[in-house]
Specification:
The chain has 2 domains: about 80 residues, 2-Layer Sandwich (Zincin-like); about 45 residues, no CATH class. The strands form 2 sheets. It has a 3-stranded mixed beta sheet with strand order 1-3-2. Strands 5-4-6 form a 3-stranded antiparallel beta sheet, with no helix packed on it. α1 packs parallel to α3 and α3 crosses α4. By secondary structure, the chain is of the alpha+beta class. β4 and β5 form a beta hairpin. It has 5 helices and 6 strands. Bound molecules: zinc ion (2 copies).
Amino acid sequence: MRTALDLMAQHGVSGAYHFRWMTKKRTKGQCVPPIDGRPGLIQLSRDYVALNDIDMVRNTILHEIAHAMVGCQHAHNNVWRRQFIAIGGDGSRTVSPNVKDSTKTYVLNCPKGHALGTKKGYRMPTAYTAKAKRQARCREHNVPGLYWTEA
Ligand SMILES: [Zn+2]
Ligand SMILES: [Zn+2]
């Protein structure tokens, strides 16, 4: 990703750190320290980058670069925070609550045609599939075969 590589070069961490995409969805960005002479990694979630605007993504890249600059041992302390703000970030530990992600809402259905509840997640819940699905019963109707659908 151009922006990440440019920012990493600009802040002098592109020698010690490489950029890598990651498939994680809940984790938007990650800084992995160098180990045993191998370069560290600044990683970004593909999902996150695809769904959000460049300013938000840019701030996440700066967040991770600040970790790389001061060392991961500082975690999200004041040393890290000052560095993050100094290079143009917003100083926040977490991503904005306005972040878009691919979370979906899933509904647990009774075969009698009503919903028992909902659950948010990145993939269909695995409870009540296969064997468990045949055994699980709606308390109201006492019929087996509860199943999940996407809302
Ligand atoms: Zn962090
Ligand atoms: Zn029912």
